[in-house]
Amino acid sequence: MVVLMRGRKPAITALDGALSTAPAAPKWLPPHARTEWRRVVPQLVADRKIAAHELATVESYCLAVATMRSAEEAVRKHGLTYESDSGPKRRPETTILKENLEAARRLAAELGLTPASRTKNKGGAPGNDDDDALGDI
């Protein structure tokens, strides 16, 4: 029987096979995304929370942050609405901003980058958790 835990995200723990050095940001990422990569990847590596096969999730997070920032710049420059033949309309950038803000928030939680996800994530090397639920056997 499979028991589903609804409403709880899985705890993020240190990975066997975690990266030991932070890779450079992919060259195809836009500037804001590369900046975010350089901000978060070294900490994920130091905390042993990222493996090579998970870097696509980090790329997605960084791209969502960059797209969010670009949309915010457009909204700041052009405003929230524009005039059309049928009256004021919401700028498409507001939707892009909202969607990427939500995506970045979800991916950040998945990667253990939010305050709530960090409280669930002890990090460190496997087997070195002082608060091991199994205790001394």
Please count the helical segments: 4
Return Rg in Å: 19 Å
Number of strands: 2
Class computed from helices, strands and strand pairing:
mainly alpha
Shape: elongated
Largest sheet geometry = 2 strands, antiparallel
Helical fraction: 40-55%
Distance between the termini: 28 Å
Strand order of the largest sheet: 1-2
The amount of beta strand, in percent, is 5-15%
Low-confidence segments, ≥5 residues, pLDDT <50?
Answer: 124-137
Helix-strand pattern:
HHEEHH
Explain briefly what this protein structure is.
The chain is mostly helical and 137 residues long.
Write a structural description.
The protein has 137 residues and is mainly alpha-helical. Helix content is 48%, strand content 6%. It is built from 4 helices and 2 strands, in the order H-H-E-E-H-H. The chain has helices at 31-46, 55-78, 92-111, 115-120, and strands at residues 81-84, 87-90. The protein has a two-stranded antiparallel ribbon. Strand 1 (81-84) and strand 2 (87-90) form a beta hairpin. Helix 2 (55-78) packs antiparallel against helix 3 (92-111). The longest helix is centred in the middle third of the chain and has 24 residues, at 55-78. The two termini are 28 Å apart. Residues 124-137 have low confidence and may be disordered.
